[in-house]
Every structure is written in structure tokens, then in C-alpha cells.
Design brief:
This protein is 74% helix and 0% strand. It has helices at residues 3-24, 32-39, 43-49, 53-65, 76-92, 94-102, 106-121, 130-153, 160-174, 178-181.
């Protein structure tokens, strides 16, 4: 097996083990020893990639934030397709999102998620006043994160297509993009 593949597989096993442990108990109560036992890796392997359990969390956050699509195009179909893909990623990886959004460090992750959303999409606003535009995106980002949290907690009461349609309809209205997209 290629070394790069082995590293990816080992990190994946560690992240999955941490996710499983976080479903059982709070993050603060998880030791490196316990994590290594759950992941079936030795401590020296763990320390080759991570300094501590917090470093694993940061790596998981980075993985998630890298999934946010770039929306360079204002084509409605492409825009919706990319957002649908993001929401489907959340649904498929619901366990990871659950622990990241609802554990004791969730406020830090949610803030990072909102900052990433603002950074990627704030420039799409058609609102001329920069302050009002930023406020509408803060409102929108908080709303989307809140909707995603509720969607996860409800056990995905809506399929991804309907969830995307509702979330995007609300987001576009709050950022005045509905006039451009006629949503």
C-alpha cells in the first residue's frame, strides 16, 4: 500500500474513532490512550500525525470546511447543484457533523463554519451598502447553520433536494440575490 494512502487511512481511522467516542461521551473526557485503543493504532503512530486530541478535531474541521463549494458562477442550476452536493455531504457524514455541531466545542466549529461561509459567499450579494450586505450574510450564515443543525437533529426529516430548495430560498431572499436568480 502506498504510504500516502496508508497515512490517509490511519488518519481516517483515528477520526472515526474520535467521532464514535464523542457520540458516547464529551470530548474533554477522551484520552489519547482511549482514542488509540478505539482506532486500533499505537500511540507512537497517533503522535506521528497529531499532537493531541484537539489536533484531530482541528483536522476534522479543516476536512469539513474544505468541502464548502466555491460559487464563482451565478448560474442558478450550477449554484443549486453545488449547494445540494454540500448538503448531501452533510447528510452522508451526519455522525461527524453531529459531534462537530453539538459537542462541547461546537460553538468554535460553528463560528469557523460561519466565518468560512461569509468569506466564500459574501461577494455574491447584490446589496450596494457594504454594512447592510455583511449584516445580511451574517444573518444568512447563522440561519443556514441553524437550519442544518435542526435538519441533523430531526434525523433528516426532509430529503436533501427539498432541504436545499428551502434553505436556498431563504438564503437568497435574505441576501437579495432572489432578484438576480428569480428564486
Amino acid at each position: 500500500m502506498d504510504e500516502n494512502r496508508r497515512v490517509k487511512l490511519t488518519k481516517k481511522m483515528i477520526k472515526e474513532a474520535l467521532t464514535a467516542l464523542m457520540c458516547e461521551k464529551g470530548f474533554a473526557k477522551i484520552s489519547v490512550k482511549e482514542l488509540c485503543e478505539k482506532a486500533d493504532v499505537n500511540r507512537s503512530t497517533f503522535y506521528a500525525y497529531y499532537r493531541d486530541t484537539s489536533a484531530v478535531i482541528r483536522d476534522m474541521e479543516e476536512d469539513i470546511l474544505m468541502q464548502l463549494p466555491d460559487l464563482g458562477s451565478t448560474d442558478l442550476e450550477e449554484f443549486n447543484s453545488k449547494i445540494f452536493s454540500l448538503f448531501e455531504y452533510i447528510r452522508v457524514n451526519s455522525r461527524v457533523f453531529y459531534v462537530m455541531m453539538f459537542n462541547s466545542s461546537s460553538s468554535q466549529f460553528c463560528k469557523k463554519l460561519m466565518d468560512a461561509i461569509l468569506q466564500k459567499y459574501e461577494g455574491l450579494s447584490t446589496i450596494k451598502d457594504e454594512r447592510v450586505s455583511r449584516m445580511s450574510y451574517i444573518f444568512c450564515a447563522n440561519g443556514i447553520v441553524g437550519l442544518v443543525k435542526d435538519w441533523i437533529e430531526s434525523g433528516f426529516c426532509l430529503d436533501t433536494g427539498n432541504f436545499t430548495k428551502i434553505a436556498m430560498g431563504l438564503a437568497l431572499r435574505s441576501t437579495s440575490l432572489e432578484t438576480e436568480f428569480h428564486f
